[in-house]
Each structure stands twice: as C-alpha cells, then as structure tokens.
Amino acid sequence: MAQIEKFHVVVIGAGFAGIGAAIKLQQAGFTDIVVLEKANEIGGVWRANTYPGCACDVPSALYSFSFAPNPNWSRVFAPQAEIKDYIQDVAKKFDVEKYVRFGYEMIESAWDDQAKHWVVKTSRGDLHARFVIMAGGPMHEPVIPQIKGLDTFKGACFHSAEWQHDVDLSNKKVAVIGAGASAIQFVPAIQPKVQKLTLIQRTPQWVLPKMDQSLPKAAQLLFKALPITQRLTRYSVYGVFESLNSSMHHPKLIKQIERVAKLNIRLGVKDAALREKLIPNFTIGCKRVLQSNNWYPALAQSNVDVLRCGVQEVRGNTLIASDGSQHEVDAIIFGTGFEISNPPVAKQIRNKDGKTMDELWQGSAKGYLGTVVEGCPNAFVMFGPNIAVSSSALIIIEAQLAYILDTLQKAQAQQIETIEIRPDVLANYNDEVQTALKDTVWNTGGCSSYFIDANGRNSTLWPWTTFEMRSRLASCNLNDYQLSFQNQAAIKTAKKAS
C-alpha cells in the first residue's frame, strides 16, 4: 500500500488566489506545500472563461498583484488571454510552478480530529495536510436554470463559461438566456455574425459606460522606465473603485450614478420601446454594476429581439417565452452566472464533527473575516462569506493572504498544533456584518441578486471599505481562536507572548 503524502500546507486551486498563496508561502519560508489544480494549466477563472469578448471589468492596473506590476497591458481593461498569460508569467517569475500538480481535483477535505490533520481526497488519491487553503474561487460552478423540455433541444446548448468554440454561430438563430456580466461582453461580440439574436432577460441590468481604450506604446515605455507612474495609476484607480463601493451606502450618490447609467441607455438606444425594456426596476448597485460601451448599441441592431421575461418551455427547437411568444432557434447560450451565495465547495468541506459546511450553514454561509469558518481548525477559505466588494479581487486576495501568513507564522513560532475560530467571536462578528449591511442598497435596492442567499440573508458582501478590510486582516489576533499546542512548553511560551 502506497504511503500517503503529507504536507504542511495544501492549497486548492491554481488561479490568482492559489498562485498568490504559493508565492507568499514560499517567501515566508513555507516550502512543504503543494497546489492542487483540477485542470491542466494555471489560470483559474481566466483559464475557464474563453467566450468571445471576455475581458476584465476592473482596470488592469488594479487587477494585478501589487508586488508584480505588468507594464505591458495592451488596454485599460485587459482581455482574458492577457490576464491568463499574466498569472502564468507571475508563477514562472516567482518560481512556484514547481508546487503545482495538475489533474488533481479535490473531491472532499475532511478534518481528522484524532490525527490533527486534513484528509484531502482528490481524483488521484488522498493527501494529508496540517493546514489547507481553499483557493478555488467563487466563479467556477456555472448556473444552468431548470427549463422544461430543454433536453428536447437539438441544437448547440452551452453556458458562457463552457463556450463551444467548434460551434459556428454564423447566420444562426441564437437565443441568449440571461443578461449578466458575461452576456454583456459576448452578445456584442457575436451579434454581427448571427442571423437573429433573441435576448431573454427577466431583469435588465444597470450598465455604466466602460472607460476602456488601448494603451499606447508610450504608456508602456513610461511604466517600464518609471515604475512609480504605474503605481500612481494603480492608486488612482483604487480610489475610484473605493468611491464607487462607498457610494452604495449613500442614496444621493447612488442617484447620481443612476443618472449616468440612464444616459448610457439613451445614447445607445434611440427606440423608446426598446429603452423601456432595458431600464431596470431596482436601484443601481442592488445587483453587480456592469460596464460596457457596446451592449446597448448591439441590442439596438435590427437582427436583435429583446424580451423582458423568462423562459417557460423548450419544445424541440422552439423556445417558448413566459410572455407566450415562440422563437425558433439553432443555439441556446446561457449567460446565467455562477453559484456564489451557495458555493459548491461547501459540500466538499467536512468539519471536525463530520458535517459538511453546506449542512452546517443551511443556505446561509457564515465565516470570520471571510477567511475562516466554524469547526474547521487549520483551514482558510479564500473569497469566503461576506468578503466580496465592488473592487478588484486582487485587493481581497492580498488582504486575506496577509492574514493567513500571519496566522501560520504565529502558529509556527508558538508551536500551535490547531487553531480554530471561537463560536462566540464568529457569532458576534456575523451580527456586526449583518447590522452594517442592513441599510445598504445591496439589501434594500429592490432586486433579487446573487448577493442574497436562499434565506434572504446577504452572505456575500463586505459592508465596509477595503481600507477597513486590509486593516482587519493585517494580523491575526490569537485571542479570537481556540488553540491547542504541540507540548506543555509551548503552552507556557504562548501565555508569556499573550
């Protein structure tokens, strides 16, 4: 029988969060680590999503590690291929590819309370870990709605995150179901080539203009010659997004942003009846705020039909909308997003009592600082409950990694064997979060969004500024945790330290 491999830290996922974790672990001297990746290359969400028009909706200057600026971005908002190249280049530059194992999909991670380690079951066998970092990310489980008769459809049918590039959409009749962040990118990209595009959107989104443009060679040369100019660009972009995030607490500011979004509709769509279909009936910010310069012009084209309703049924190649209209289509593309408020990873993590987090949460995820969860010693979750913000994911990742590294270093210095969040600390923190979210537009804006879980609770968003996030996650307070030690001498050392 083969001996089970043991690691000090096992990282799940090789996207930005996983690669960032490997870099910071290595820099801190933790080299007994492994990064498990289910796919065959590094990239995470930027490896998986390859649909036409795929690009970032955060400017490149901010959508990159602060410690690894890239002066070569071709646009203000980088396209998908460049972002994937960037994360792969960063992994090479910091020499962490050696820790990544491809083709290792995590099936389940369960805490063994007797052995005091995690048993990580993968598609290629088990591993043991003293600590685990769940870095799978929030956007990798596509949502495909249950539609009566969908199995009778004979044409191509796929989600935007699983784009079938071998399907030629030229001169085809295409139905797009959903109008979220992916749809507003791929619809303008495919609209010119299809014969007919039928957009089925139950709820139109608020879409702001996208301040995008190509970056001239002069800008790239300046960033290389004077790196401080790129840092200053990053800080200014950070300030803009921080202001947008903070405005969600202030109704007067929200109204001003909404005016800009309405102007964007008026400029892109001249037809009054179509404009009426595209104006949302909720306050801007209640759902994720989107950006595009070509969404509205694409919808205004003669080969596009916009419906403001859902899908009732599919009969063969006929799609029947909930308004009773019937549409013959050759292909169906879902732009219906991902499982976020009910993350699939919750079914794969078993705590010390043998319960999955899904069983424990009962539809409402709860964590501490978005990074640790109940009953799971020595475990960290990237993009955990109530950590999302209207800014760059990289801001969250770097804040969380600072906290995780501080925790690991304290555990090593004080010979801590297990570290587990105290139930009272967790409960008090979640009460504080929900109180802070109560009057925000995310909770009161009158929409149904993925921020709100099945129980009507906002278990997704961080209610404060990212300055506050970085401050709270700057260091780990061991008093928040239940600790066990490797020996009696370590207990005495820890008492002196505290």
What does this structure look like?
By secondary structure, the chain is an alpha/beta fold. The protein has two domains: 296 residues, FAD/NAD(P)-binding domain, CATH 3.50.50; 143 residues, FAD/NAD(P)-binding domain (3-Layer(bba) Sandwich), CATH 3.50.50.60. The chain is 32% helix and 19% strand. Strands 1, 2, 3, 4, 5, 6, 17 and 18 form an eight-stranded mixed sheet that branches. Strand 4 and strand 5 form a beta hairpin. Helix 1 packs parallel to helix 11 and helix 5 packs across helix 6. It is globular and about 75 Å long. The two termini are 45 Å apart.
Largest beta-sheet characterization? 8 strands, mixed
* Total beta strands: 20
CATH architecture classification of the largest domain: 3-Layer(bba) Sandwich
Instruction: Give the helix level as a range of percent.
Output: 25-40%
Termini separation (Å)?
Answer: 45 Å
* Integer count of domains: 2
The CATH superfamily name of the largest domain is FAD/NAD(P)-binding domain
Global shape: globular
Tell me the strand percentage band: 15-25%
CATH topology of the largest domain: FAD/NAD(P)-binding domain
CATH class of the largest domain: Alpha Beta
From the structure above, extract its key features.
19% strand; FAD-bind_Monooxygenase_sf; 15 helices; 498 residues; 8-stranded mixed β-sheet; alpha/beta; EC 1.14.13.-; FAD/NAD(P)-binding domain; 20 strands
